[in-house]
Design a protein that fits this description.
The structure is a single chain. The chain folds into 2 domains: about 5-95, Rna Polymerase Sigma Factor, Chain: A (Orthogonal Bundle); about 105-185, Arc Repressor Mutant, subunit A (Orthogonal Bundle). The chain contains 9 helices and no strands. The longest helix has 23 residues, at about 30-50. By secondary structure, the chain is an all-alpha fold. It is about 70% helix and about 0% strand.
């Protein structure tokens, strides 16, 4: 059974207490436990609106990021119904802006490099070219790409390790990916 398809527990008695604990402590783990209880509901809402499983999974993570701030700003009485509305609105905003949550894989960032193809004899040369291009990235992009793709850290972990904001981390990865691709294309790799 997947994390996204576990049954939703309907006991709401602890929700308000957990919200209060999060507001007082700021401990993301407290909010994470409460959020986890409703992930199947949130995922279902996302799937209903976005009509794509991967985009819905990414949206769930985006909703959690929003939740960390919004739960401090609003007086939430019924968390279950409040997070349902938050999820629906998040998805509607994604649709309106024409953006669905982006799925980034290592293959996509490296799609332009020949060494990912096992039959190619230029693997070592391509790897060296990629390393040269990595060196040309600015420090923030290089660090973010290294942590995300090579060390497989999530956005939140990268933000915690580097001190960058979540939005900055996403931007550094996206811009770094584009700069790597341009560098590799310029060098005829």
């Amino acid at each position: 059974m997947s994390f996204f398809s576990r049954p939703v527990k309907t006991d709401n008695t602890n929700d308000e207490e957990q919200l209060n604990n999060y507001r007082k402590s700021g401990d993301i783990a407290v909010l994470g436990r409460l959020f986890e209880k409703y992930v199947p509901l949130i995922f279902g809402v996302c799937l209903k609106y976005l009509k794509d499983e991967d985009a819905s999974k990414d949206a769930v993570m985006g909703i959690f990021e929003e939740l960390t701030e919004k739960v401090r700003q609003h007086d939430v009485k019924q968390f279950r119904s409040w997070v349902y509305v938050l999820s629906r609105n998040y998805c509607l905003m994604q649709i309106r802006s024409g953006k669905k949550a982006e799925v980034i894989s290592l293959d996509e960032v490296m799609e332009f490099t020949p060494f990912w193809h096992p039959d190619d004899n230029n693997k070592e040369e391509a790897l060296k070219a990629l390393e040269r291009c990595m060196e040309k990235l600015n420090t923030m992009q290089k660090q973010s790409i290294d942590l995300f793709y090579l060390k497989q850290k999530c956005y939140k972990e990268i933000a915690d390790l580097t001190g960058f904001s979540l939005n900055d981390v996403k931007s550094y990865i996206q811009n770094g990916k584009r700069n790597l691709k341009l560098c590799m294309e310029r060098n005829g790799e």
